[in-house]
């Protein structure tokens, strides 16, 4: 059984931030919010176990979205018509006799 030293298991904020690819402030914020577990030795000495932090962060993993092929995506939009377009549609479907044609005023 290989021996591992405690300094190989526990790392400080700077090393954890480097390994995770985030800033030191982010590690501190996650630690304060208790998103990641930490070990506190005294007033200023805070250390993190890499494996415990990685397993804690897996709780926040979100599944990937299914990507649609490029060019085939059409956003669903409710068809909107302006007031002018509505009046034009009324004129297109107006009765043959112009005396029956009523246009809105205003």
What does this structure look like?
The chain is an alpha+beta fold and 106 residues long. It has a domain of 55 residues: Arc Repressor Mutant, subunit A, CATH 1.10.10. 37% of the residues lie in helices and 9% in strands. It has five helices and three strands, in the order αβααββαα. The chain has a three-stranded antiparallel β-sheet with strand order 1-3-2. Helix 2 packs across helix 3. The N and C termini lie far apart (89 Å). The relative contact order is 0.09. The mean pLDDT is 78.
Order of helices and strands: HEHHEEHH
Distance between the termini: 89 Å
What is the global morphology? rod-shaped
Give the CATH architecture of the domain at 6-60. Answer: Orthogonal Bundle
Total DSSP E strands: 3
Catalogue the unreliable spans.
none
User: Can you give the helix content as a percent range?
Assistant: 25-40%
CATH class of the domain at 6-60: Mainly Alpha
Quote the CATH topology of the domain at 6-60: Arc Repressor Mutant, subunit A
Give a topology summary.
Blueprint: H1 6-9, E1 10-11, H2 13-20, H3 24-32, E2 39-41, E3 45-49, H4 50-57, H5 83-92
Antiparallel strand pairs: 1-3, 2-3
Q: How would you summarize this macromolecular structure in one to three sentences?
A:
This protein is α+β, with helices and mostly antiparallel strands and 106 residues long. The protein has helices at residues 6-9, 13-20, 24-32, 50-57, 83-92, and strands at 10-11, 39-41, 45-49.
